[in-house]
What we know:
The complex is a heterodimer. Chain A is mainly alpha-helical. Chain A has helices at 3-36, 43-59, 65-72, 85-107, 116-138, 155-162, 176-198, 200-210, 212-217, 222-248, 257-268, 273-293, 295-298, 303-317. Chain A has one domain (3-317): ABC transporter involved in vitamin B12 uptake, BtuC (Orthogonal Bundle). Chain A has 14 helices and no strands. The longest helix of chain A has 34 residues, at 3-36. The termini of chain A are far apart.
Amino acid sequence: MSDQFLFATEVFINGLMSGVLYALVALGFVLIYKASGIFNYAQGVMALFAAMTLVGIMEGQVPFSHIINAVFGTEVHHFGWHVPALLAILLTVGVMVIFAWLVQRIVMRHLVGQEPIILFMATIGLAYFLEGFSDLMWGSEIKTLDVGLPQGGSFWIEDMSAGLGSDNFYGFFIDNLDIVATGIAALLVTGLVLFAQYTKQGRAMRAVADDHQAALSVGISLNFIWVLVWSVAGFVALVAGIVWGTKSGVQFSLSLIALKALPVLMLGGFTSIPGAIVGGLIIGVGEKLFEFAIGPMVGGATENWFAYVLALLFLVFRPQGLFGEKIIERV
Amino acid sequence: MFYREAGDFKVSYEEDSQTFPIKFDRYRYYFVLAFAFLVIPFTINDYWANAILLPFLIYSIAAIGLNILVGYAGQVSLGTGGFMAVGAYACYKLMTAFPEVSMFVHVLLAGGVTALVCVLFGLPSLRIKGFYLAVATLAAQFFLVWLFNRVPWFYNYSASGQINAPERDVLGIVITGPNAPAWATYLFCLIFLTICALVARNLTRGTVGRSWMAIRDMDIAAEIIGVNPLKAKLTAFAVSGFFIGVSGALFFAIYLGAVEVGEAFGITKSFLVLFMVIIGGLGSIFGSFAGAAFLVLLPVVLKVVGVDVLGWPTDIVAHFQLVIVGALIVLFLIVEPHGLAQLWRVAKEKLRLWPFPH
Lengths: 331, 358
């Protein structure tokens, strides 16, 4: 096999892996969109907030220490204890549930029945709020997150595949973290599907997604379901935050993964969980291969826009995305 | 008592269809214009011009442009930053290629170029609607910023990748570069804003504006009663693009002077202008002014209160700013989805009845 082909294969595999990560973020969007018709722009910032909270709890940081120090002239930063990763994750889930409840209680309850675009803008506002809030709470410096996920390249795969090409080819470089992330994503999706199919709450969730009015009339509490959905989305955000945070540090740019998830959603359709995954894979592979093949000719860094342009071209031919429900318009 | 139609007799069609049918409104409008043109230029100083007045004027133009697209035609766009960048770079290329031509022409041409680009990216709007369109316009945002970053022709092969506004004048008065007097830059922007607002106001009252609003309210129904959606949507994109391009050109040439595209015209700029439109009021020219004024003044006020009065570090104040802006957006959407313009409308309605309760 030629080296060029092998390099392309390596790019392809890495694209698949990053596609899984995009899909992980996109999942959170799909969940909320299906259940409440809200396109939650704040999903990325939620991932950032969750990761920051996790780091903060693990390190025993004092929340709002910046403001406290500035206002009272004190010098408090840390409680001086370290929380084990698993307990910290559980606590963070608790925080995300409280956050979901607050969002539902303070914001979304008052916006029921508004136009979708108004709801979308409200979540943009929410994203700004949460971004500032998490910086105030935990400080804005870059933090490292280590919950015990493996990192670095996988030597085993590199050694095994090195023999495939000529001497110039050193084997596939694949990040261990990406492999683990793929496993986590698979687990998460299976878990979500099982939850939606076989539990009482899951069924109620699907009923609400299907028809708000009908769900209300058979005695399903919309408020409860929405809190539940936002909590689940918060949990998905936490998982995405852990994986991305381990990969590239917990910092502001983490919230920008929301922007990466948008073209994934457009491609896959806003209402479909398989769509989010397939869309993520297509985008991940597409942008890596494009950068590999065409990128050097046009100055590189095409990853910034390729996903959007691909999704845009795609939508012109199929406005509801790959797996989305057919849009039927009536007057 | 003073604010009413009664007693103000219209004796010609021109008078009947004028912009401000109520006498009080008309005089207020003349007064504001006179104040802006005749008083402020003589009292202005550099701080006021650079911190408040210039950004207000320029963002107002951008907000009017975006309001035409989002508020009147219902096509949500998140590509404002990218389109402003088109205006800025078009202006830059024109300024450096034709140094002897007046800045007025450059800015207008920059608007025209942006209108073309905007129409190009507006073409998918015929197929894509709602959210999908909003996300699709992000393609414009990211692609355009990348283009201006990576293609050296756009920044004239300068080593830093930045563009710097060379010194240019209008009628012999320098209006770009560091030596431009505050009153000249202010007047230059004000003239553009006045023209843009007048054009926008009259466009939205006329045939074009009505077809935009019909498309916004329900595009299929509008199509059935004979509004051409292709024409309506693309004119909305073109007019909006023109305004946004003009504001981008002014933002670069007059206000900043030197621009690094990712920083000045990034996605945050798109959101900022969108927030101005939402807070000000969708589908209202006055709202565009109000929203721009609000979001230009808010950081200044916060900085004065937070840093100068309370003595907090600037980063905390910056974070607070995000929190407050976000909370305000949500609050506005909950309490008053039609923005500041609606408050103004309610106030006018009250004034019309005053001093009677009903």
